[in-house]
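Obj.: predict assembly geometry.
Materials: sequence records (below).
Method: joint structure prediction, all chains together.
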Amino acid sequence: MGRMYSVPFVAAAVAAANDLFELTAAAGKPCVVHSIEIEQYTEVGDAAEEGLSLTLRRGTSGTTSGSGGSSVTPVAQISSDAAAGLAAESNNTTLMTGGTITTLRAWAWNVRIPFNKVFTPDTAPVIAGGERLVLRLEGAPADSITVNGTVMVEEIG
Amino acid sequence: MGRVYQMFFGAYDYGVQLDLFQFTAAAGIPVAVHGFGMFPYTEIGDGNDQIISLSLLRGSSGTTSGSGGFVPGPGLPPYQPSDSAASFAFLSRNTTLMTGGTITTLRAWVWDFRVPFYKYFTPETRPIIAGSERMVLRMGSAPASVLQQVGYVIAEELA
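Observations (raw structure tokens):
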């Protein structure tokens, strides 16, 4: 087993199509995503209900990183572990482009309930060294939402 | 596998921002959280719908403990009757929040008070604190109206 890291973000205002997370694996250090949690806390009640399309996409090392969001420093699950080699960003409004982008999963999120995915060891999404992984909000929400989220990722190597 | 303990919050009025629970690991004895659950029972129906932000925070040994909440009696009972009492310190419902030192956000969630909030972690993703570190589950703000809930946490001492 490799080193585990959490990649959290708090109180992100999301009003447009967005790469909610972008992970870029360091050279020679594949990453395995163990869980994804996305939740919002500003759209409340029946009238605010909406469903949003999400995709998990893997990008080759030739892709261009998204931008416009925030860098997130991965937090070691065990505080004495080494800092992560992977780079993490959240809420990029300019999406990852270029290279070869492959859709790994396609989901939908009803914003009134949490979007939680915990992967079994055999089905956890994996990226090789130098590759990228994004969780993409495919379209703009009807109203801006304020989002918390966490990805748990294992770095191998 | 280490020794496993379950702690209860008890029924309580939640009207301000709280550290819902706080662990302080004993020196040299890390603590892993296996899961927790919270169950509100006074905010019912669309008109009472509200959602708040929650964060799971890790504090270095230099943090100052929160206070103002519930202090369970000494010797938290273990799951296995033959195990010893817990070495970590556990507090719940602190109205004065953990401060100082280095505080790191481990997870960020939200909670709709109309439904229970459950988290059970797979073994590889359990939040862990090293000896003498702290972990708190913090409400991001006060609820819009006072609610009552009960809750519990299950944690393991790893040495």
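Conclusions so far: Chain A has one domain: 3-155.
To do: check interface contacts against the pulldown list.
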